[in-house]
Specification:
With 308 residues, this protein is α/β, with parallel strands linked by helices. It has 12 helices and 10 strands. Strand 6, helix 6 and strand 7 form a beta-alpha-beta unit.
């Protein structure tokens, strides 16, 4: 009798554990479906560890999006091609990019709306220990950049007409942080970098040999897929995005970059000294890109289609 009772209790225990496991699995599936629904309804923006994305990070960290009653989520990538792929796959509705890439995406059939230009700039930074200080010294040297992007266009623009002893070799290093580390480790002779990695590179004794601002180019942009923001729900989110973006710009301009050192360290993987060394920057309210910049980027993007 005792053996029978023990067997019966054991069966009950097994059934109870099985039911508990199945119940937990069902709860987990329901939670996962809920998270997926929430994510699908959220406005998602692909961002990178570049300073032009700071207003979006600040808006998220200060919960400005929440205050305005919308679900807007930055999605961090380290390479522009990954942002492009996220846009193509519908994982994000918008992205921070550059006009060369977005104009090229348009040529592939993607319909985009430009919400705002950004003040980002790029510097070609060369190995200081190799005593590379000028573009005409870049013959037979390796420059890290991204094909079909602003850095590709800038390479053409700055090297056009410059006499070098040999060919300048451009290598595609898409991950911007890997590009930065390769410069520090002398695996490349120079690299195109945006802030804050440009400041980090200069702090290590490397030298600026070209700066996009010298060409009076403003190529940074925030773009959204037209179809992804066409309905009333998305339009409400987009209006809130613009409002929060402007609020974040005002906050950064008022308090300075150092006030957001925690945000910079969190999203950009830079140290306090780099944050302190960042040049003073003014973040502008939402402003459409200039036609001259769009036209130049579109012309260059069209040439890249032939090279692909």
């Amino acid at each position: 009798m005792k053996h029978l009772l023990s067997f019966f209790l054991a069966v009950l225990a097994v059934c109870s554990c099985t039911n508990s496991y199945e119940t937990q699995q069902r709860i987990d599936r329901e939670k996962q479906r809920k998270l997926q629904r929430e994510d699908s309804l959220a406005l998602k923006v692909a961002v990178m560890p570049t300073l032009d994305c700071l207003p979006i990070y600040v808006a998220a960290d200060l919960r400005l999006f929440d205050t305005l009653g919308v679900d807007i989520r930055p999605k961090l990538y380290r390479a522009q091609m990954d942002c492009d792929e996220a846009m193509r796959a519908g994982r994000v509705e918008g992205m921070v990019s550059d006009l060369v890439r977005t104009e090229r995406l348009k040529l592939t059939g993607m319909l985009l709306d430009y919400v705002t230009s950004t003040g980002t700039y790029w510097q070609m930074i060369a190995n200081g220990k190799a005593r590379l200080k000028r573009l005409d010294q870049m013959g037979d040297k390796i420059v890290a950049m991204t094909r079909f992007s602003a850095t590709d266009y800038l390479s053409d623009t700055f090297l056009d007409g410059v006499k070098t002893s040999a060919q300048v070799f451009r290598v595609q290093i898409n991950d911007v942080q890997i590009r930065y580390r390769m410069l520090l480790e002398k695996e490349v002779d120079a690299a195109w970098l945006a802030e804050p990695l440009a400041t980090a590179a200069r702090r290590h004794g490397n030298v600026v040999v070209a700066d996009s601002r010298d060409k009076l180019l403003t190529l940074g942009v925030v773009a959204f897929r037209q179809k992804a923001v066409a309905d009333n729900h998305r339009q409400k989110q987009l209006r809130a995005f613009v409002k929060a973006y402007n609020m974040a710009c005002d906050s950064i301009n008022k308090n300075g970059l150092k006030a957001y050192s925690g945000v910079l360290e969190k999203y950009y993987d830079v140290d306090v000294k780099t944050v302190e060394a960042l040049p003073k920057s003014k973040f502008l309210h939402v402003t459409k890109p200039r036609k001259t910049d769009v036209d130049k980027a579109a012309t260059f993007a069209a040439t890249t289609m032939k090279k692909d």
